[in-house]
Amino acid sequence: MELGAVDSVEALAALLRQLRRRAARQRGDSQLTYRELAASTGWAHGVIGDYFAGKTLPPTDRFDALVRLLGAAGPELGALATARDRVEERRRARMQQAAAPAAAGGGPGSGPRPRPGAAPRELPPDPPVLVGRDRELASLDLLRPLAPPGPSPIAALDGPGGVGKSALAVHAAHLLADRFPDGQLYADLRGADCGLSPLAPATVLARFLRSLGAEGPLPVGEAGAGALYRALAADRRLLVVLDNAYDAAQVRPLLPAAPGCAVLVTSRRVLATVDGAVHRHVGLLTMDQSLALLGAYAGERRLAADRPAAEETVRCCGYLPLALRIAGARLAARPRWPVRALADRLADPRRRLDELEYADLRVRFTFEAGYQCLLDGGETDHLAAETLPVLAEAEGELTAGEAARLTHRAAREAEPVLERLVDAQLLESPGPGRYRFHPLLRLFALEQAGLPVLLADRPPAAGHPTGHGPPPGRRFLDRKLSARRPARARPGEPRLTERRLPGP
């Protein structure tokens, strides 16, 4: 193909395919597959497929790396770069021409209108370290634009606090960004922030509208703002990242209807009532993955010098990415400490949550946020929050019957409370009717009850289902239930008062 004739994304893609065939002939081998190219570049193979299919214009640096892999060299590299820049210039000119009539239409009183300009690029920085999430990243390939276009794909990530949902979502969004040339919108919805109410959908819509170029006075109310948002997104290929969502009602008004858009949501809860969403649970890491994450911050050689201490540190962190990141940061800040020094500090359950703090990172704060959301919620939420510390007296797995005995309630009353704690990611359910704590969450729950944290490592007492004899938990539960708190403000409602976590 004559390089001077390349003037569109499709023609540039045809040129890439031609280079790929030429490289195969020169090597006397088959053409490089997308997966082989992905392994060489670190890009998602679906993104590479979009480049060769003409669905996405490769950024300058990626285009240069790709044609080099395909054997381009010398003066040819300059000619190829010129062809790629010409495609981008003509594409930008066509977009500006299309936007001009909309920008010129209507007078000052005609309401908001789109403003021509750069596409919004609102993603936070790509996390420098993300370990053990290859399977989850591969599953998010469902967000790639469909051909022919279909309904906007929605992926919803759920999981407990500190497991790394936001980091995974932001990293995935950066990998997917090339498929959405009209921009990426991002909003932290504050669904699990201690002391802050979740953002109202109308607030987020107003910011999204400005990001999409709306000028003039915006519609008053969520319905009008949502209609304009969907209209502005209708002819665009946008990726919308809704981080830290409170519930499905907060998310629904922020969903674009355009077939070229995609949405990535994170939430502690499973947003099961968001129609069309594909749900992905983000869980704990394995031992090997945890060691890799710890080593990324503390240094792999340092861990290799005392592998048993490194594994003990991982176990004390409960395989939770946030805890591992904090432990790694502490070791990085103390380069002369042996890993054993931190492992011994973490081994004491009375100090473990205190040790898992560094700078602005605290495991305890993450748990407090989820606990506070329940305390500020409705009747069932509040009861679940007050029951959590009582349940922490139990060793190992719990059944609804054992929870009922701990709280002196009927099993049919205990099960909805247990399930609410599972929904809030404060309790795990490995199977129907079975419940258990994450080790660090159990320490936090014992703190809320004012019970000795040494209970966490105490062996069960013979003849008692929880291993601790008659529980003081009933007195605790009665005391807490006698001082109920008002319900937490819903997204958009005013927060009437600042609330503190309950003391022991």
Low-confidence stretches: 98-110, 454-488, 493-504
Q: Mean of residue pLDDT?
A: 83
Number of separate strands: 12
Strand content: 5-15%
Instruction: Choose one word for the global shape.
Output: globular
Count of helix runs? 22
- Major β-sheet strand ordering: 3-5-6-2-7
The main pleated sheet reads as:
5 strands, parallel
- What helical percentage do the residues reach? 40-55%
* Class derived from helix and strand content: alpha/beta
- What Rg is obtained from the alpha carbons, in whole angstroms? 27 Å
Measured distance between first and last alpha carbons: 76 Å
Task: Please give a handful of descriptors for the protein shown.
single chain, alpha/beta, 22 helices, 9% strand
